[in-house]
Amino acid sequence: MTVTGRKVIPRVGVGWALALLALLPLVPVGAEGAPLLLSSADQGSWLAADKELHFAASLAIAASLRVQGRPRETALAMTFGVGLLKEAYDATIKPRRFRRGASWKDLVFDLASAAAGIAVLNAIDR
């Protein structure tokens, strides 16, 4: 879509990502009665390899969206949305032998690394 020769990129509000995050605790159990969120002990340490993967993936997604011209807010919301979808998968579809359940620690890393990816691109653009 263009307006007077200028490309217009639709904006996705950060509010949607925050609204989805706010609704997560309201669903205390998954489809089969299992807890939706893993216990803190089952989520692993803050420096676990899984958290590094979340950080790297979200940083790459956010930076890629910024390189493609998406606004900061859109890149942040879309990246966090991917993280929310991944945790929804973990809580509902992931095989039980791999410890089914969402991790709020993973979501913290998703959000922090999305912000870091945007900050890195902003620093490079200056």
Index terms:
126 residues; mainly alpha
Can I get a quick summary?
With 126 residues, the protein is mainly alpha-helical.
Please describe what this structure looks like.
It is a single chain. The protein has 4 helices and 2 strands. With 126 residues, it is mostly helical. A two-stranded antiparallel ribbon has the order 1-2. Helix 2 runs antiparallel to helix 3 and helix 3 runs antiparallel to helix 4. The model has no long low-confidence stretch (mean pLDDT 81). The protein has one domain. The longest helix is centred in the last third of the chain and has 22 residues. It comes from Eiseniibacteriota bacterium. This is VanZ family protein.
Summarize the topology.
Layout (H helix, E strand, L loop, with lengths): L1 E2 L2 E2 L6 H10 L25 H19 L4 H21 L11 H22 L1
Antiparallel strand pairs: 1-2
Helix pairs in contact: 1-3, 2-3, 2-4, 3-4
Q: Which regions have little confidence, pLDDT < 50, spanning 5+ residues?
A: none
Radius of gyration: 16 Å
Roughly what percent helix?
55-70%
Give the averaged pLDDT, no decimals: 81
Number of strands: 2
Label the overall shape.
elongated
| Class of secondary structure makeup | mainly alpha
Main sheet, how many strands, which sense, barrel?
2 strands, antiparallel
**What distance lies between the first and last C-alpha atoms, to the nearest angstrom?**
27 Å
Q: If helices are DSSP runs of H or I spanning 4 or more residues, what is the number of helices?
A: 4
Read across the widest sheet, the strand sequence of neighbours is 1-2
- Give the total of domains: 1
Order of helices and strands: EEHHHH
Strand content: under 5%
Protein name: VanZ family protein
